[in-house]
Amino acid sequence: MEKRIAILPGDGVGKEVSRGAVTILQAVAELFNHKFHFTYGEIGGAAIDEFGTPLPERTLNLCKASDAVLLGAVGGPKWDLMPGHIRPEKGLLKIRKELGLYANVRPVQYYSSISGISPLRKEVVEGVDMVVVRELTGGLYFGKPSERSVQKGEASVVDTLFYQKNEIERVIRYAFELAAMRKGKVTSVDKANVLESSRMWRETAEEVAKDYPDVQLNHMLVDNAAMQLIKNPRQFDVLVTENMFGDILSDEASVLTGSLGMLPSASVSASGPYLYEPIHGSAPDIAGMNAANPIAMILSAAMMLRLSFGLEEEAEAIENAVEQVLDAGSRTRDIALFGTPFLTTEGMIEEIKAA
Amino acid sequence: MEKRIAILPGDGVGKEVSRGAVTILQAVAELFNHKFHFTYGEIGGAAIDEFGTPLPERTLNLCKASDAVLLGAVGGPKWDLMPGHIRPEKGLLKIRKELGLYANVRPVQYYSSISGISPLRKEVVEGVDMVVVRELTGGLYFGKPSERSVQKGEASVVDTLFYQKNEIERVIRYAFELAAMRKGKVTSVDKANVLESSRMWRETAEEVAKDYPDVQLNHMLVDNAAMQLIKNPRQFDVLVTENMFGDILSDEASVLTGSLGMLPSASVSASGPYLYEPIHGSAPDIAGMNAANPIAMILSAAMMLRLSFGLEEEAEAIENAVEQVLDAGSRTRDIALFGTPFLTTEGMIEEIKAA
Ligand SMILES: CC(C)[C@H](C(=O)O)[C@@H](O)C(=O)O
Ligand SMILES: CC(C)[C@H](C(=O)O)[C@@H](O)C(=O)O
């Protein structure tokens, strides 16, 4: 198989972990006789520095001409004082919109090998295996107006949560498709007792559910979901929600098992290419120190092989290598118990490649 | 001292726990020689059933004529299918708006006596002592438009996050006042990398901070806050944030210590009366079964004595009685370890009264 993969390392640890993904993908290509063409593009702060914009035309065209996109991370204190429209995060928001990446898919999985680092009790997190599906191109992130004004002599500001019903429907449908292949349970999260958009969300979920008689749907208010994720995370299979709610809840979910540095994500569109990125950010405090955990990025590459290229065996080979290395006790700093030895980013990459 | 207290039991367990607060307040009045006049009003589903509206004029007038308001809880499945404007929750939203309750104050405290029921590891939650200050009369809850429409032939929906700068300022100022009396640290939570309202929020926090040189301010993105609450909750002193973010984060914070059934809250206004309510909801599943934990409501009454009436000694007497009963091993079902004995609501009220 021959595939073109766009690599957008971005900022901070994004560069280091991207190298890890490429190394592992090259090893997979050799082992399974595939040809992966890697082309690099700038995004985020790196792109601002070089081109004055967080998402240059060139990068966007590169992505559109590729079969899949691997992204490291964007952002950092260096660009924090830039005006709104040339901040690194704008690059991320724009690429999501331009590629039509309407659903962000984040599996959260419990690894027994690193159970010791979860902030939760073992009885609570053991066996957690859920996916958060976050709407990614609408909602409070993209609605207009989003601006300041003076109203009756008072400085004021507005942001807007806007959805077309079909935007709500497609992401909920994606969640049902996923649940049908998993444990058959969708939890739709909203704030239907306050927001009109949530009432439409809830109705749409009910409508979509009719097409999936074997999938169980239940509704949960977002404040309750924030509690249930901690009290009883095992109750979830697929959780689907609005963009802003999803930003908050997926980050909350990602720390339950203690494996933030190990969690991949996929953002999918109607017609591709999909974008894959680790959940963790650019981590400016450890950037360039060869200390980041490359596993989330490497598992993102595995997700890409599975979802974009249908290479199930190859994806599993990577996932198994990661588990093997963890079972053997190898750790980067973020997942090492306090006072125990740990590997560098490079060291971890080498171990996974060797496994 | 002579005070008029409005009691709004509301729905579900609200009725049972309200009785607890009144019982304890009567005991305090006797002991310390005060006169508390209790007047009862309907709100939520109970008010819909009787008057066809979740907040009757009569109830509102009663509150305005009182020195403080004690509220149980509102809502329940019985009213879930009602149209938006006569749902129980509307009563709560309306009373907040009508009484100008701009800040909701929720202390989250670790009780060593019940450490066993926290979903988090003891090392993580031990010593947690924080307050969430949530903006309560603006933001995504109240902005207009909040409605459906058809745009370019597509069914659409919009909700609006709106603030006047002075609304942002007063709640942040409240947080600083509180922090100055506590550990001197304010964490202002926003989504400044995406929302314009959050950028105004952040700037306003910086401006207010200038008036409090002894209070340390730091900013945190809401997704990161959702993680930090679990990873390292001890880092927080006073957390202040927008209405919707505050709804999510304060509920998340309230389960960390396992003491959801024990957490009180106060909602404050510029000129009173303030409103006090437990954080837990109406819990329809156990309503009327004499099984609810009355402690959150009783501690809300203690907060009232302190904040509205300046009765510090009386407030402490209640808080000490609660601690004493817990230390002695008394539990309601929600805070009992699995398989250990527990008291009824009435039983717990009696023990606290006796202590
Ligand atoms: C960087 C930021 C704009 C982004 C978001 O809020 O979507 C990030 O937090 C994420 O979750 O991918
Ligand atoms: C009942 C509901 C409207 C309310 C809210 O969202 O404010 C509740 O969740 C709360 O936190 O007091």
TrEMBL record, chains A, B:
Q: Which reaction does it catalyse?
A: (2R,3S)-3-isopropylmalate + NAD(+) = 4-methyl-2-oxopentanoate + CO2 + NADH
What does this protein need as cofactor? Mn(2+); Mg(2+)
Give site residues, Important for catalysis: 141, 191
Q: Give the source's domain of life in one word.
A: Bacteria
According to its UniProt record, the EC number is 1.1.1.85
What Gene3D superfamilies has UniProt attached to this entry? Isopropylmalate Dehydrogenase
Of the GO CC terms on this record, one is:
cytosol
User: Is-annotated flag, keyword Cytoplasm?
Assistant: yes
InterPro entries linked: IsoCit/isopropylmalate_DH_CS, IsoPropMal-DH-like_dom, Isopropylmalate_DH
Q: Name one Pfam family in it.
A: Iso_dh
The alphabetical list of record keywords is:
Amino-acid biosynthesis, Branched-chain amino acid biosynthesis, Cytoplasm, Leucine biosynthesis, Magnesium, Manganese, Metal-binding, NAD, Oxidoreductase
Q: Which family does it belong to?
A: Belongs to the isocitrate and isopropylmalate dehydrogenases family. LeuB type 1 subfamily.
Name of the protein in question: 3-isopropylmalate dehydrogenase
Annotated source species = Mesobacillus selenatarsenatis (strain DSM 18680 / JCM 14380 / FERM P-15431 / SF-1)
